[in-house]
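Hi L., both proteins are below.
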Amino acid sequence: MKNDNKDTLKKKKKKVHGSLNINLSKSEFMNNNEAKSNRLFCKICLFAGFLVLFCLVLNEAGVFRIAPVIMRISCLASAILFFIPFVISYVLKRNGDWVKYFMIIDILIVVIMLYSLLSYHVMMLWLFPLVSSIIYFDKKLVHFAIFTTIPAILLGHYLACTFLLLGDDPLRTVQAAMLYGALPRVILFLSIAFIARQVTKKASKMLTNAIENSNEIGRMTSGIQLVMSQNQKLMGTRDIRILAGRLVKNLGDLLVLMLKLENRPVGTVGVLDGDKFYTVDSNGNPNNICRDLGDDIGFEFNNARFKLSKQINDATSYAEEREGFVNIRFYDHGKLTGFAIFRQDVESDDYSMKEVLNIYTYSTTSIINNTMLTFDMFRTQEQLAYSLAVVSENSSQETGQHIRRVSEYARVMGKYICANDEQLETFRIAAMLHDIGKLMIPKEIIEKPGRLTAEEFGVMKKHVIYGRDIIGNAPGEVMEMARHIILHHHERWDGTGYLGVSGEDINKFARYVSVCDVFDALLSRRSYKPAWSAQKVYEEITSQSGRQFDPSAVEAFKNCYVDMLKIRDQFPDDENDEENIITANSETIVTAETDKSTEEAQKKKALPKINVDPAIVTPISI
């Protein structure tokens, strides 16, 4: 029965991982690469075999003037040896680890034979085994090629001097052959071998890093997709006790996936039911283990004691690692509404696990609180979207106010493209997720104080693809619209955006979010630029009509400009800093149609610092 459970867990993990292949290891990659490299090596040998036969034809035609008998023997024998790797890999279909070493030895035999018969005419062939070994990205094979080629060079020169089949060879004695032939060529070979070794070492290191990064991205994406998939199923839950049972199962599944566990960890989940906490164990069975301690609740779990405060000022939900445990607490405006404790160690430097747990905590908090308040599914979906978006902005040290403002800008501008109030609400919520893909971008790029290099900007541009993949196939109208907004919100009307999509081919909702996002970014101070004045932002966006932005979106922006500035006032980054508030009324708003004399007053307004995506610099530089 225990083995059956293990098989079931393995099948579930395999199904969840899907095509991301997050179990990829360097050894597995090298095994796959070895078979491909063997076939490539065979093609190289085939080409070399036909090449020596072509040289034989040229010699027979009188182009070369090498003794016919010597040339025939050397070329025909070499061609046969060059064809042997093809027979091994393609005919006999052998791909063991020994095959690549055999191929190096086979080539060395060919080179020794050719040099013994043709001497300096084939001098460059000494590099053939070394160069061929590089295609495997295997340092051991490169070392093997180096240490077998050096004695081969000495042997080849000795045999060439001994046979002396070519009369024009100037090295006629063993001493001359070794001193003036083999020695300088060994030195030259070692110089090239050192370079080859360094290239292989660096390539191997880059390969290891690439595989690790790919695995982490796949692992993190799989975890986020699982959280979103699970939470979508929780959104219709109305019974808080049923919710607790599903939560304990979902978190167990998440830990199994992220940590590649063979067995589900033991845990418990508690949710507030009235004035008491209803708890279930990892099998979904109620255990009611919480004790009321006045301002706290206390319980014992797996031979450890826990005490949680019922009310904490300004508390937010969080996940933490206590030695041997994963501890998650859910708060709603400082009030404890739920918790989850699992008996499982998490490495302190496991960034992906911590980020996924944070996402789980934020999203699950919304679901618990909304279920307790009996909100409908659509409102719960809004909270999920906002929570995920907050995590993405916090990863780049931005505030959640940017998300709220962009969402509210979308609500105002969306009146010009949404068919009804329901679609407008969907658009407002979907706009929150426009930058969720930044979770996959390295922090050193997101938080870089200066402008990005071309390579860094290339990585940054991928956040639209990552964001689309994070949303995946999550059901619901909000997620469907969010997929298009995420993918296209950095496209330009003239086709010079991230993906090169232009005009009407850009999703219409993404065109409006693009204006909202740039509007808020330009009004905000960055580490590498001051905040723009409202007048300058207005002029910049309107000047980009038909270039960066959809003309109809710019017209909507003009009509909504006053309302958008009011939203900027309503959701400032620092409510206590009155200097950061733009007074949005008809007397102070400056547009292209009004007197520009107030522009200087607008410029003097100090706007708050919001550290967001450094790739969004100005509409011109995007």
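That was the first. Here is the second:
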Amino acid sequence: MGKNRKRQDTVGVTGKRVRILSCAFFLVLAYLAWAILDMQVFSYEKYQEKVLNQVTTTSSLRAERGKIYDSRGNLLATSKTEWRIFLSPVDIRDCSKKENRNYAEEIAKDLSELLSLSYDDLYRKAANSKVLDETVLRRADEETYRKVLGLIEKKGYSDMVHTETYYTRSYPENSLFCHVLGFTGSDSQGLFGLEYQYDDILSGTDGYYLYAKAANGNELPNQYISYVPPTDGYSIETTLDSYLQQQLEYQLNETKSTYDAQNRVCGVVMNVNTGAIFAMATTDGFDCNSPYTLSELYLEKLKASGLTEGSPEYKKLKTELLYTMWSNKAVTELYEPGSTFKIFTACVGIETGATTMQDRYSCSGAVAIGGYRISCHKRGGHGSGFTFAYGLQNSCNPTMMAVAAKIGAERFYEYVCKFGYLEKTGIDLPSEAKSIFHTLAGLGTTELATASFGQRFKISIIQQITAVACAANGGKLVTPYLVERVVDAAGNTVSKHEVSIRRQVISEDTSRQVAACLEAGVSGDGGAKNAYVAGYQVAAKTGTSQKFDILDENGNSYLRVGSCVAFAPADAPEIAVIIVVDEPQNGKYGSMVAAPYISGFLTQALPYLEHEAHYRDEDKTATVGNYVAGAVSDAKSALKEVGLGVRVIGDGDTVLAQSPAAGSVLNCALGSVILYTTDSGEEYVSVPNVKNMDAQSANAALIAAGLNVAYDGIKGYYIGAESVVTGQSAEPGIKVKKGTVIHIKFLYTDDED
């Protein structure tokens, strides 16, 4: 009985083991079945890709990056074709065996002679049959490429020597628009500016050949599985205008040089009705074709650091300087707008009924608010009983503080939001900075007062010109933009920009009133007189702000930002322009460091944009004709008809010589042409020194010397004493022909904000 029980126990254990093994066997079968099902159904593509990766190799075909154009079809960025020259060592080995020739030696010899390369290096590459291909030249030009093609055809190297097309980025205008365009990296990827913002559109999609390969990883000759052609990138047509950009850059460089701006000068030109950016520039830019080369300013800063070249500290500083050089100041940096922000305060004051243009105000030079004494830029004050319009035109801080108090913190903050100062503009450029402004709870009486004239908060330059465009265009807040159209290689439109109006902020009536007031501040006796453009109505406001985040050893701010913003024509605005001069050393007021350069820009831009000039009598000019060899009587009649004076020297009937020469432009009120009718020779006079003279004295001195006067810069008040000569075209004391045109530059040098 004991034996039977033992046998039963053994049978039971064996059965249990069989059942366990059977379960394990079925579990393994189930797992294998699931794995096969997963590989064949659920993860088919994944495992197919793994297999293909083991038996195939890819040869890429580069897509051509799209072009970038300005608004008039000028090419700003394009792709230059280059070629990679490379060898196929496997084919060289196979062909050598097949034909019993040493192709490695032959190819190395031929290419070394053709391309002036090392024979030893070429032979090593040609004989290295363990790799798929060996690069001979990575960036060959077209001449070299054609030489290599000729060699391949002549020597029958088509299976062993190959070429591959590459595209490198090229910028025909070098540094023009550099901060807007940006540049690309070594793999043609966009790194800054439009190149980065529209990289997906511009870059296209690379194609490829998918080749079969042997177990050793080498390509199987003359075998490929599939061919996917590259899809070239789309091109973009921008709103930019090369002529306006050149004019803007010229003015920015002029003020930087004159006033020694230490932290760059920036400017933006915008269509106030659509938001289209015509021009955008920052001084001390870079060549887009060589973006890693520091410009002169930053190279001097690097040298002045005293750091050892190649040291970690040196490399770090160089990188920081490169990023500063590349940054688009108009979009990525913040500043305190100063009195240009008074345009906002005026708009809100008129819109909410807190003031009218005729309401009366007083200014003693300072106001006590919240325990602080807040000054006007005019320390002696503007007096009492003047209108709000006068206060705006002459940039009176107490007037703005009084209006802001009437508006109230809540409504003031509401309109700060409406004008877009608390949000990004949405411009199609990368790295747009976000403004720094008070919270509503933090907008106390002192903060409200300083905010009314543009201090103690920071905005971007693109935000400011967008808000001013809103004030100019009838109250519509537009979205600034740079790309008008995206097109394919055939020129077909892929997409087109739609003007984006974010909201109606103020009424058209408020807009008209503020524009008219700002225009009167330019054409009359306001603080923006230096922004005057003969023949055109320009509305402008200047500003000067302190930089409170940089203080001297006594805790005082000593750096300034001078700026001016303008739009024109004031009665039907199209174009707005802003110039911001950061840390000028030889001046500080926006009326001096920025307004004259706004005038210089608009003097060129408005006729270019086909706006008709309507000159005042004192601004009218005429072009001198060619009267030599003609009758004196005919010359007199022609000059009288255009409004110019005439002086005849000699008693002949025929003009033998004239001064100034044909083509000279003279002011009709003062200009005079000298006609010589004898062979006695032309008269010469000494040029007087009129620098620092007022207009009346300068005119008198030049005319008394028998010279003509041409006025550069701002409006004349040609017989008054309000403006001062800051420059003359001919050095004092030199001898010139009588009647020669002397260009003199006038500026109003009173300390206006």
